[in-house]
Amino acid sequence: MTTARRAILKALENSEDHPDALMLHDRAKEFDPTIAQATVYRTMRLLEQEGLVEKHDFGNGRARYEEAEKEQHDHLINLSTGEIIEFHDTDLEALKIEIAKRLGFDLKDHRLELYGVPKE
Amino acid sequence: MTTARRAILKALENSEDHPDALMLHDRAKEFDPTIAQATVYRTMRLLEQEGLVEKHDFGNGRARYEEAEKEQHDHLINLSTGEIIEFHDTDLEALKIEIAKRLGFDLKDHRLELYGVPKE
DNA sequence: ATAAATATGCGAATGAGTTGCATATGCAGT
DNA sequence: ACTGCATATGCAACTCATTCGCATATTTAT
């Protein structure tokens, strides 16, 4: 547990917005001004492997991260603002498992993103 | 309509396996041996913009393509083999739209991939 | 406190995809 | 078919996110 890692973890805890590696680097600098980009990348990879963090690709070139804790959820991206909204739907979860089963598979993972614009 | 583009289109028609740009380049060489990578990339971008092709990211670094025609479908990736299976589920479609609506959005696009291993 | 193990910073390397530019090609209009 | 011009191509150089090598610094086990 190093200064750099503590800085990254704090930056992550303070972030509610699915930050990317660059944002995390900036935010972590507040707690460890000398932290390097490479360290952020290395640490995020580690955290992801440990299952403490989830990595997402919302299609903007950079990977985005969030703490892996809360109940399973999916994301809706507001195409007008880029805002990311989390949602959870039990029917949807069940349906995903059911579809995989129907195709002869055990569902191990999945990725669902909805892209939408605000109504009217 | 150039030789290079015809080659790429033929390569694409002959491909049932969601090829990436490298695979398409190789396959297009059969019809135009001097075709360049850059041309494949440029053409795929064009085809995607024209809506003739869909670009997917199945999480292996390279974008994968398929002709945009058939009815809307999602993908299940067999984690054991890398094979990509297409499926369509009406309930799922309806549910996605319904969830977006519930959150106050009109669904414009979505991305769903299931990752699974063969049962038992 | 010391040594062995691990993490860091830096800059260089990677790899997918893009781009600048000079040349080649497709496509009118004749 | 022929000329002109717009567009596409090949090539090599470039971008940008991410990774890596390595010498040094920090942790952790002893």
Rounded radius of gyration of chain A (Å)? 17 Å
By secondary-structure content and strand pairing, the structural class of chain A works out as alpha+beta
Shape of chain A: globular
Total helical elements of chain A: 4
What's the helical proportion of residues of chain A? 25-40%
Strand share of the residues of chain A?
25-35%
Distance between the termini of chain A: 50 Å
Structure write-up:
The structure is a homodimer of 120-residue chains. Chain A is built from 4 helices and 5 strands. With 120 residues, chain A is α+β, with helices and mostly antiparallel strands. Chain A folds into 2 domains: 65 residues, Arc Repressor Mutant, subunit A; 43 residues, 2-Layer Sandwich (Dna Ligase, domain 1). A 3-stranded mixed β-sheet of chain A has the order 4-3-5. A two-stranded antiparallel sheet of chain A has the order 1-2. Chain A is globular, with a radius of gyration of 17 Å. The mean pLDDT of chain A is 96. Chains A and B meet through α4 and β5 of A and α4 and β5 of B.
